[in-house]
Amino acid sequence: MPLSEQQIERYSRHIILEQVGGAGQEKLLSSKVLIVGAGGLGAPAGLYLAAAGVGTIGLVDADSVDLTNLQRQIIHHTSDLGVEKVASARNKMQAINPEVTVETYHIKATADNIRKIIPGYDFVIDGTDNFPAKFLINDACFFERIPFSHAGILRFEGQLITVLPRETACYRCIFHSAPPAGAVPTCSQAGVLGVLAGVIGSLQATEAMKYLLDIGDLVTNALLTYNALTLEFRKVRLNRNPDCPLCGENPQITELTDEEQTICDLNDSKH
């Protein structure tokens, strides 16, 4: 559908970019992105994708807004305390851009429901806060062949990788399984610099938009790390692991399962 005069004005700074143009903006408006976790990483990703005019954005989160969230989860305000995170986030996203459709799922993503949610979405952003959820998203996207962005933050450091299922290294190529209990501190124990969530979550939104527009180079087959104290980025090259239990030569994982949750991951969606 051709852009209206109002849309041309709203998205004018995109449209004048040679790599985007009117055709690219129309593509964004017809695209669908799912964000699992409406917290530290999902907050900036959701706000920027809505502002950019991504036509349909899904939000999955079972939690409600807590006072400890407000130090970094900028999509939620003090007046939202006790409100479902997906509802709070939807209100801010549609306040920025009323023409964006925001689908909300006030549920915990599990092996029983995730493959009913993600089909039809073009890209998934993993904004969850624990290892089992990250493995679940990785595996579900692999089976459904949907690209996704993984990220995590802790203290002053963040990490990011984009996965094109069956083409590039997946999350299990790097981390076969969750570490033993106590090996990694919880987010509430270790702390996190609030603004770090904005940096890494914005990078996830950038990866989603680049994929949708088919421009630039995605962070595939590489783990991008960021240290806020030194303001340094580092990219560690990776290859698909032939022994990966999911996408390797002899896969052992052939269906989705819910792994036991032991500890918080490097992400900061919840705590």
**Total DSSP helices:** 10
- Give the overall pLDDT as a whole number: 93
Order of helices and strands: HHHEHEHEHEHEEHHHEE
Strand order in space, largest sheet: 3-2-1-4-5-6-7-8
- Within CATH, the superfamily carries the name NAD(P)-binding Rossmann-like Domain
CATH class: Alpha Beta
Q: Which CATH architecture is right?
A: 3-Layer(aba) Sandwich
Strand content: 15-25%
Nearest-angstrom radius of gyration?
Answer: 18 Å
Approximate shape? globular
CATH topology, by name, is Rossmann fold
Q: Tell me the helix content.
A: 25-40%
Number of strands: 8
Please give the alpha-carbon distance between the first and last residues.
42 Å
* SS content category: alpha/beta
Q: Write down the domain tally.
A: 1
Query: Which stretches are poorly predicted, pLDDT < 50 over at least 5 residues?
Result: 263-271
The biggest beta sheet reads: 8 strands, mixed
Task: Chart the SSEs and their pairings.
Elements: H1 5-10, H2 12-15, H3 21-29, E1 32-36, H4 42-52, E2 56-60, H5 85-96, E3 101-105, H6 114-117, E4 123-126, H7 131-144, E5 148-154, E6 157-163, H8 171-174, H9 187-190, H10 194-213, E7 222-227, E8 232-237
Parallel strand pairs: 1-2, 1-4, 2-3, 4-5
Antiparallel strand pairs: 5-6, 6-7, 7-8
Please characterize this protein's 3D structure.
- There is one protein chain.
- With 271 residues, this protein is an alpha/beta fold.
- The chain has one domain: NAD(P)-binding Rossmann-like Domain (Rossmann fold, 3-Layer(aba) Sandwich).
- Helices cover 32% and strands 17% of the residues.
- The protein has 10 helices and 8 strands.
- It has an 8-stranded mixed beta sheet with strand order 3-2-1-4-5-6-7-8, sandwiched between helices.
- 44% of the residues are buried.
- The C terminus is likely disordered.
